[in-house]
Amino acid sequence: MKQKLTIFLSGLLILFLCTVIINSKIASTEKNEYLTLFQLSLDDLDFDNEITGGFDESYTPVAFSYDMASGTPRNLVRSWGILRVKDNKTPQADPGTPELLKKYNSIYIADVNKPVIYLTFDEGYENGYTDDILDCLSRQKVKALFFITGPYLNQHEHLVRRMVEEGHEVGNHTVGHFSLPTLDDEKMKKEITDLDKLFYEKFKKHMVFLRPPKGEYSERSLEISSKLGYINVFWSFAYDDWYRDKQRGWDYAYNKVMSNLHNGAILLLHAVSSDNAQALERIIVDARKKGYEFGDVLDLIDIARGENR
Q1: Residue 45 CB: number of other CB atoms within 10 A?
Q2: pLDDT at 201
Q3: Which of 16, 28, 108, 173 has the highest local Cβ count within 10 Å?
């Protein structure tokens, strides 16, 4: 009897140890995979076509779309674009896209009946101007929304911490800056949730805003990210400001932004631009002189959900 009990207990012990070893290997694999994502160099990310829709200075539509292999409407890859309208009028999105965004709690423009502007910055990588931008926002008492990538958080945590501590919102620009609609469901989810996990570990808060890399999206990507609790934030104004070797002076950035201000504007500016950094204070001061206010970006949550329309 004792021998049988000994054999039985030995078997349980072996089973327990095997389970521990297997779980340990699984956890180690997941951890290594998780860490690898955040060891990406900025050189591994593609920013050559930061916004693939491009920009047309003649006030013509710039959005385009193309089919994935499945050919279904849900997987149609769309590139965000808007039709600019002169004299500070409301720009126009492609027919049907505002309704599609609304269906998934996504947004590109705020209340067009109010002279309120929302500032957003894309932070794919750092080019030395973010501190200056944050200094300006602090002086002018404006809260902005910054979209970061995995390598940015990994390599510039001090700047992200400053954003958080100074009351700005930090949004999800994914780990590796891939075009979301070109990924399968699981890869897409990982690109979004893994960045949020690391952000939560460091700051004990979750991201609620998502900006799709390259401005590319599909109904599938909107649906998946919405189910994850995100609000996709597109824009009603942007320009080709992400080229480090194509800076044209602060006055170019200033004139470009000021000539396209409008009620409910969601402005996309890239923080790698020296022009933007140098023009920002003038833009804020002179926009206020024109009667515009800079809104709390958290208001975009209610606007996107239709609770403040």
Answers
A1: 21
A2: 96
A3: 173
207 in helix, strand or coil? coil
- Is 122 a residue of the active site? yes
- Quick one: which H or E segment has residue 92? strand 92-93
First vs last C-alpha separation in the chain: 77
How many domains, the chain?
Answer: 1
Alpha helices for 78-172 (secondary structure H) = 97-103, 130-140, 150-155, 157-165
CATH assignment at residue 102: 3.20.20.370
The one catalytic residue among 94, 122, 241, 275: 122
CA 294 to chain centre: 20
pLDDT for the residue numbered 40: 54
How many C-beta atoms surround the C-beta of residue 66 within 10 A?
Answer: 10
The low-confidence residues of the chain, meaning pLDDT below 70, are 1-71, 307-309
Please tell me the predicted confidence (pLDDT) of residue 148: 98
270 in active site: yes
Please report whether residue 21 resides in a domain. Answer: no
Instruction: State residue 69's pLDDT score.
Output: 46
How far is it, in rounded angstroms, from Cα 64 to Cα 49? 14
Instruction: Indicate which residue of 177, 196, 270, 275 is catalytic.
Output: 270
CA dihedral 246, 268, 192, 189 (to 10 degrees): -100
Encoded amino acid at 60, one letter: T
Q: What is the pLDDT of residues 135-156, one digit of tens each?
A: 999 999 999 999 999 999 999 9
Please give the residue range of the domain that contains residue 241. 51-304
3-state helix, strand, coil in the chain (%, to 5): 45, 15, 40
Q: Write down the pLDDT at residue 14.
A: 57
pLDDT given at position 59: 44
Residue indicated by tokens 């080019």: 127
For residue 293, the cross-strand partners are 116
- Per DSSP, 6 falls in state H
